[in-house]
Amino acid sequence: MVLRKNILITGASSGLGEGMARQYAARGRNLALAARRVDRLETLAAELKKAYPGITVVTRKLDVNDHDQVFAVFEEFREELGSLDRVIVNAGLGKGQRIGTGRFDANRETLQTNFLAAAAQIEAAVGIFRKQKDGHLVVVSSFLALRGVPGNATAYAASKAGISSFAEGTRIELLKTPIKVTTLHPGFIESEMNEDISKLPGAVRAEPGAQALVKAIESETAKAFVPTWPWSVLSKLFPFVPASMLKKFG
Ligand SMILES: NC(=O)c1ccc[n+]([C@@H]2O[C@H](COP(=O)([O-])OP(=O)(O)OC[C@H]3O[C@@H](n4cnc5c(N)ncnc54)[C@H](OP(=O)(O)O)[C@@H]3O)[C@@H](O)[C@H]2O)c1
């Protein structure tokens, strides 16, 4: 397995992105961290550089919905680190609202951020990887990509189903090249999106969640449900759950 030294993570200012940055810093990798809350990125970068003086950590303010900026910032990171060996498309949000209740604004923002902006990040990363003739693309989708779901999660699940398909198509496009693609389908992991995990079935705390994500990424598998237990087993059952039962959770 190739050691991917320079790793770009979007959405690194909190939650899963921050957790993966901490895990990779401890493994001696160089980091390029992006998000809108750049103050949080700078605090994290200072902490990681102090704890692991051998690594380089660079940060940039980035709103992934500004697609030109996505391409510009990824290229700046590449120049700064010399190469990008792995890009983790992680920035996302779960702000959706019940369909037809006057909150298309929230559903549009969810679809734009989790699908269109993630597609822009995939384009930018793969463009760089094609020139380098090497690289590992990681797309953070969701367990909920597997089904249409009701309630506040309808737009979220649809955005994740869309980006999973986009990532799979990209992976097949790049078969027989040195460029690898992994799609992650996390279950419930503690983060700003899921602050109170006590009521969420199968949820894990932030640190074991980040460890499980990094383990799956390092395997460079095509697709992983994370943490494996219980989400890999549930992924086999979820397609058969009757709509009437899903409705109760909406
Ligand atoms: N936690 C879970 O259980 C879970 C499960 C399945 C999938 N996921 C996925 O994991 C990813 C990370 O979510 P999380 O749970 O860690 O939530 P989180 O703590 O809310 O983190 C979301 C991250 O995305 C960034 N972000 C959001 N909108 C952005 C934008 N327009 N431009 C740039 N960055 C943006 C945020 O940074 P700024 O606000 O600073 O920009 C933040 O760093 C998401 O794609 C989410 O769908 C999470």
TrEMBL record:
Enzyme nomenclature, EC number: 1.-.-.-
Pfam families named in the record: adh_short
UniProt keyword Acetylation, yes or no: no
UniProtKB keywords: Oxidoreductase
Enzymatic class: oxidoreductase
GO MF annotation: an example: oxidoreductase activity
InterPro entries: NAD(P)-bd_dom_sf (IPR036291), SDR_fam (IPR002347)
The UniProt record lists the keyword Oxidoreductase: yes
Top-level taxon of the source organism: Bacteria
Cellular component, GO annotation: membrane
Family statement drawn from the similarity comment of this UniProt entry: Belongs to the short-chain dehydrogenases/reductases (SDR) family.
Name of this protein: Putative oxidoreductase
Source organism: Amycolatopsis japonica
